[in-house]
Structure formats: C-alpha cells, structure tokens
Amino acid sequence: MRQPEPIIAGTTGEIPEGETLLIPAETTGTVAITVFHAETGTFYALDDECTHGAASLAEGFIEDDVIECPQHSARFCLRNGKVLSLPATVDATTHQVEIDGENILLYAGLPVDEAADAESVGATSLRMCHRLPGERYRAGCPVGPLE
Q1: CA pair distance 48, 24, nearest whole angstrom
Q2: Would you call the peptide bond into 87 cis, given omega within 30 degrees of 0 as the criterion?
Q3: Are 100 and 119 in contact, with CB atoms under 8 Å apart?
Q4: Domains and CATH numbers, the chain
Q5: HSE on the CB side for 63, CA within 13 Å?
Q6: Can you tell me the distance from the alpha carbon of 4 to that of 110, in angstroms, rounded to the nearest whole number?
Q7: How many CB atoms lie within 10 A of CB 22?
Q8: Residue 106 and residue 99: Cα distance in Å, rounded?
Q9: Paired strand residues for 8
Q10: pLDDT at position 127, please?
C-alpha cells in the first residue's frame, strides 16, 4: 500500500492528555478522524464514528489507552481499534500518527498495522494489549472476549 501524504492535524500542545481533536472529512479526504492524546501520553487516531452507532468518539471518555463511546458505552482499544465491550462488535479503523517536532502528522487511510516501522514512529505503538486470565485490565487496555 502506498503511504498517503501526511496531514498536519495540529500540534502536541493543542491536545492535552485525555483529550481529542476532531479532523473533519473535508480535511482528511475520507471520513472524519479523531486524534486521541491518551492518558499514557501517546497519540492515536481512529475513525470518529463509533462502529455501533452514529456517535462521535471525539466526545467519548478516555481512560488509559481506551476510548468509551458517549452514546452506548462501547469501548475500543486506541492502540489497535479492537472492540473491548458490547454493544459494538466491529473494530474501529485505525490511522497512522507520527510526531514531527511539535506537529502531529496524520496518515489518513494508513492503518496502524500496515505502518512500515510501527515501533519507531514515536506516536503509536503496535504492542498488542493483552489480558491474562482473571485480569480485567492490563497496561490500560482490556482485551479478550467480549463480555
């Protein structure tokens, strides 16, 4: 897959930890995308619309590396877009994010798992969130069967 041209979504100082920045479809050329500044200090990007309903994830609640939809409380892992709780059953689409100085570069349409060198981009991590038997949360990202 050819890497799309980056969009300067904003600067790191514009999005405090635990907050979001909505990038409209007119800017991305595809769909509205939300950039998340997780409580862990990492920046992530997902399609803005919840896969369960027409709610904006930009209006959701961030806890560690997880976003909770404000409408029906579906939860998604910001690292990989995986569904973490019902009522959603479809993963959220991820987009590659890089930090270049103070600029947040968004690669709309480039999924995180297709990033050429994902561990070195500085803004995202492909380390998968893991849940051990009996654990509800681990490293801020509850992953496992839908509960």
Answers
A1: 9
A2: yes
A3: no
A4: 7-120 (2.102.10.10)
A5: 14
A6: 7
A7: 15
A8: 9
A9: 105
A10: 32
In the beta sheet, which residues pair with residue 112? none
pTM: 0.76
CA 78 vs. chain centroid, Å, equals: 4
* Span 96-131, pLDDT tens digits: 999 999 999 999 999 997 444 333 333 433 333 333
Q: Which residue has the tokens 């681990």?
A: 138
**Which residues are CB-contacts of 145 (< 8 A; sequence separation ≥ 6)?**
none
Give the closest residue to 106 by CA, choosing from 4, 9, 3, 1. 9
CB proximity list for 44: less than 8 A, separation 6 or greater: 35, 36, 38, 65, 78, 79, 94, 97, 112, 123, 124
Question: To which H or E segment does residue 28 belong?
Answer: helix 25-28
Return the C-alpha torsion angle 114, 115, 120, 121, nearest 10.
Answer: -140
Sign for the pseudo-dihedral over CA of 139, 140, 143, 146: positive
